[in-house]
Amino acid sequence: MTKVNNFYVPKVDSLELRIPITDVQIIDTTLVDNLITYAESTGELVKEQKGERVSIATPDGLNFGYNVRKRKAHPASPEILTEINILANAKHLKERYFEGITMDNVHVLLDAINSTKTIKISREALLRADIIDVDYCIDFPANYDEFKEQVVDRLYKLVITNKADRVPRPFRTKTNLGLQLNHRDKSTPAKTYAKFYHKTTELINNSTDFAETYLKDIDYSDVGRFEFNLKNRKWLRHYGMHGIVSLKQLLQFETAQIIFQDVYKNWFVKREYTPTSSERWYEILFEEQYKEMNLGQINRAKERALARASESGAKKIRKNYHMNMQNGRLKQKAKEYQEKCLASQLDLFFGVNKKPTYDVGTLQSDSNGLDNITIDKNIPY
């Protein structure tokens, strides 16, 4: 039996795909029957109405949804697009469910969609499909009691909200255990719909047919999950995913962990800084980068920058460095990260706590294997 082990790996769990109807072979005409009706004798348009939605639930626990929709190509554009909307999720991958939807298994998703004999699409059309309503997730190791104590109970007390929010909502039922943040229909980009839940409990109680059919050779005991939703392009842009419009682009996106950290911090980390207009944007960026780097990394970056800079540029680099050294931003001791419990590992993934970086005057070897470096304060920079 194979144990689930791809923990803390961001993955696509589900999404809605929009494919131009011209790229789809319609097999079940229920989708489009009476969508457009013409007079046979003259060819004149008689009426236009929405086709019926096709929903399929298989005995092994798979669910499919298809419907035809029309939308403007752009709010200001007169062009109307007719598309097939497809609900796709990782369960369509069957035994490869815990991988999430990836470029390596997208052919499995394609086969599942085509196997329903409702529509038929090509791999190229699938990868070109427009994306909305994306659910990202990570899995992490956690038994039931540990999950309740260190995730649900702890984070419920830490969540930052206001009276207008109808969140958070911890839940503990016979079928699942978790902490829901916001509702799908109430979410905003900054406070998007997200939740923690115990994946093992959910599969055992709510997805029995699927688990017994496809996961019988997989040990999915003691698995927790965090997931969040990116509703549309506005949500994608909010998290820096500009230009990500197709399934292929989404599956090739490589920095999703940063989005997980942003979503988490919007719910659990208080913003201690107020906007400032007196500093230039790149000075603010440098300051924040200094905070994330250890002294060895900062000094190496500074020396490389000095080697590339002109004389006047070198002076500015040294000035910026000394300003940050003098006000204590680079001298503050990093807290040693020794705990190995679930709460600490989650905090590390979401960027709340840092691993050991440096002590004053001496850099300890960090997680990247950097050598110990002693800082001589008498050396001019």
Topology summary:
Blueprint: E1 2-3, E2 11-20, E3 25-26, E4 36-38, E5 45-48, E6 54-57, E7 63-72, E8 80-89, H1 106-115, E9 119-120, H2 123-128, E10 130-141, H3 144-158, E11 169-172, E12 177-181, E13 194-198, H4 199-206, H5 208-214, E14 218-219, E15 223-230, H6 233-238, H7 247-251, H8 256-268, H9 281-292, H10 295-308, H11 311-326, H12 342-349, E16 358-359, E17 362-363, E18 373-374
Parallel strand pairs: 1-14
Antiparallel strand pairs: 2-8, 2-10, 3-9, 4-5, 6-7, 7-8, 10-15, 11-12, 12-13, 13-15, 16-17, 17-18
Helix pairs in contact: 10-11
Describe, in plain words, how this protein is organized in 3D.
By secondary structure, this protein is α+β, with helices and mostly antiparallel strands. The chain folds into 2 domains: 2-37 and 46-268, no CATH class; 281-374, no CATH class. Helix content is 31%, strand content 23%. The chain has helices at residues 106-115, 123-128, 144-158, 199-206, 208-214, 233-238, 247-251, 256-268, 281-292, 295-308, 311-326, 342-349; strands at residues 2-3, 11-20, 25-26, 36-38, 45-48, 54-57, 63-72, 80-89, 119-120, 130-141, 169-172, 177-181, 194-198, 218-219, 223-230, 358-359, 362-363, 373-374. The protein has a 9-stranded antiparallel β-sheet. The relative contact order is 0.11.
